[in-house]
């Protein structure tokens, strides 16, 4: 029996859906469902979520945030996540500045933790 419980120390930073092709995304099966936690980044894309990916936060090598003047006026932005052995992940949606700040804090705190063997 499989369960979808989160570990008690895992908290959700952001969960949502992006539409890369705007209003045509549902017709082209081109939406992306996202879940960013303090442990991992999960996303499903393709027709009916046919492709699923997970990136561990510890694998992140760099984070970028960018927004144009129009995006700034509308409260949107683009978060780019660079991870080891994974192509860059770009998320463009509303409220991305706050998500970038939270993810950056989590990422920096995981970098400062020293593993004890």
UniProtKB/TrEMBL annotation:
InterPro entries associated with the record: YdbS-like_PH
Domain of life from the UniProt record: Eukaryota
Domain YdbS-like PH per the UniProt entry, residue ranges: 32-87
Name the UniProt record assigns to this protein: YdbS-like PH domain-containing protein
